[in-house]
Amino acid sequence: MASKADVDMPDLNDLGKRVRSLSGPVCGGALIVCAAVLCGVVIGETSIGFDVVLKTLSNNFLGTALSVDPIESGLLWNYRLTRAIVAACCGAGLAISGVVLQALLRNALAEPYLLGISAGASTGAVLATVAGLGGGAISLSAGAFAGALTAFGLVVTLAHFAGGSTAKHGSVQIVLAGIAGSQLFNALTAFIIAKSANAEQAKGIMFWLMGNLSGVRWPDVQVAAPVVILGFIIIVWHARYLDAFTFGTDAAASVGVPVRRVQAVLILTTALLTAAMVSIVGSIGFVGLVIPHMARFLVGHSHGRLIPAAAVFGAVFLVFADIASRILIPGQVLPIGVITALIGAPTFALILIRGQRT
Amino acid sequence: MSLRGENLSWKTRGKIIVENVSLDVRHGEFLGLVGSNGSGKSTLLRMLAGLRSPSSGAVFLNAEPMALMKRRDIARQMAFVEQQADTDDAITARTAVHVGRTPWLSPLSPWSASDDRIVQDALAAVDMIHKANQPWNTLSGGEKQRVHIARALAQQPETLLLDEPTNHLDIRHQIGILDLLHRLGKTTVIALHDLNHAMMCDRIAIMKDGRLWDIGTPDDLLTKETLRAVFDIHGHFVTDPTDGSRFLRFAA
Question: What is the ipTM, given to two decimal places?
């Protein structure tokens, strides 16, 4: 019976081949992301020579002591580089969250922003910091995580009671529930900030509703990078299981997927990714919607390829969206969510009209 | 391989759907589950497949309680085909069959040439090789169902469970699917609507109001009295002059 009895004990040769066959795409993806981040460092309102960029990077990474203007070097290292890295992390994290939610909910329109998860994370973060819920014992990130989970639970429950349990009608119900959820949580966020006496300490309402990368520094990189790498590994590990959800949960269970456990692990992972990103940059919309569809169009539906592709495209997309937000209007920085929504909303419409997955 | 349900019951919102059903599936047999709409045959099948946990009672696969088994281990021994499982994803028929390899793969033991071969064999068994690379949404209902059966075969199970796989298919595809399942020769439990299809089973289990009415050969069970009592119809057998086989004629 067991034609593949070695299934639990992988052949080391096979594993070696697998590693070798993967090394190309992995290096390629990493290179593309690094190139995008470099663009994010080079391009800005103040034009700084490419030699200064190289010298700064060399000084910081390789420990050289080349002479550069300390102001320019500081701007590059502490502002633009951190900003670009966090944008890349955030884009990757939101894009793979979108892939997971679309697969698990069998819904082409599922993504953290449209489902209200980002809005919930904002409310949670604001409750923990501005309103001081939990007496300071709850950190911003923990508040965001709790908010993200609460919002997801609320939206799914609402969709369920609205008769959205069947696959055919669930698509519409869950998006409607998501709109209701987003509106509620965004209103709560605005209310809490407006009411709070020390609002000036807090990030503004626009930050939580539209996203902003302005305040990003190295400590934020130290949160964003590990979270997105961890989330990516967990999600890639479940890639084949996500493929099995193509025909719904019963079909997944009948090919051996421990459905409840996989759903729980992956939903928690997306909530963690969304919460971490929202607590650093506010809620940025549509990345989780646009990027997975684009990636699916280019590399197909197999999650083994789709997840890495979505991560790379998401990272690159958000780095360039950030560049656009900085240089589009001279002397003014747009919230990055404005750029992503300008691209995302028409895509949303396109998916609605086509009525099915690309 | 043995599959056994013991005192299976399933309730939802205070309503009893299946009540105290015990049933033993014999190795290699073709067992039909018949009964009117809402008689509980679909739910019983899902409990046997391990997709619904019984409210009480237990299912045993090779004498092991299924509730304690890993999903992966169940899926290596038993495959389930739903009535209509559809997707909007733009996947090919072959990709749909790939999913059947899930219980044999893990992140550390990825897809190999032998998996390709098994998928190819499964597609050949259901005569879908020529359409293997066609997009899912271009396949007809009968073709989709054949691909689902190929997906089930790619699991290399000993037992197939099928929930009315011929529903919504035209007559040619109905006969084609049943003929295919008979030729596969695996232990098969199949929920059926058409009593003339049930005549082709080795044994049938008749469900009525959530209970097991009786289990036995179609010749023994499908009598005028049973048809009247279970299905509320009059029926009598007619012998086909071409091959001497019996079939049912009904009247309200």
Answer: 0.88
CATH number at residue A84: 1.10.3470.10
Topology of the domain comprising B3-219: Rossmann fold (3.40.50)
Residue A133 maps to a domain: yes
For residue A356, is pLDDT > 60?
Answer: no
Asked whether residue B21 carries a pLDDT value surpassing 70, the answer given is yes
Would you say residue A254 has pLDDT above 70? Answer: yes
B94 lies within 8 A of chain A by CB: no
Give the distance from residue B75's alpha carbon to the nearest chain A alpha carbon, in angstroms.
Answer: 5
Length of chain A: 358
Residue A8: per-residue pLDDT: 47
Domain interval for residue A202: 41-354
**What average pLDDT does chain B have?**
90
Q: Is the pLDDT of residue B174 over 90?
A: no
Nearest to B102 among A9, A255, A301 (CB): A255
Question: Domain boundaries in chain B?
Answer: 3-219, 222-252
Asked, for residue A28, whether it belongs to a domain, the answer is no
Assess contact for A147 and A122: CB atoms under 8 A.
Answer: yes
Total number of domains in chain A: 1
CA–CA distance from A31 to each of A24, A137, A298, A322, B106 (Å)?
Answer: 11, 40, 19, 19, 28
pLDDT band for B65, please (50, 70, 90 cuts).
Answer: very high
Residue A18 domain-assigned (yes or no): no
| Rounded distance between C-alpha atoms, residue B144 and residue A298, angstroms | 25
Neighbouring-strand partners of residue B106: B109
* Residue A4, domain member (yes or no): no
Share of chain A above pLDDT 90, in %: 38
Mutate to test the interface with B, among A14, A255, A303, A356 (most CBs of B within 10 A): A255
Contact across the interface for B109 and A8, Cβ inside 8 Å: yes
Interface-testing mutation among B101, B108, B147, with chain A (most A C-beta atoms within 10 A): B108
The pTM (predicted TM-score) of the whole model is 0.87
User: How far is CA B214 from each of CA A88, A163, B38, rounded to the nearest angstrom?
Assistant: 64, 37, 17
B-facing residues of A in 223-242 (CB < 8 A) are 236-237, 239-241
The token duo for A155 is 């939206």
Please list every residue in chain B whose beta carbon sits closer than 8 Å to the beta carbon of residue A106: 87
More confident residue, B172 or A15: B172
Residue B110 sits at the chain A interface (C-beta within 8 Å): yes
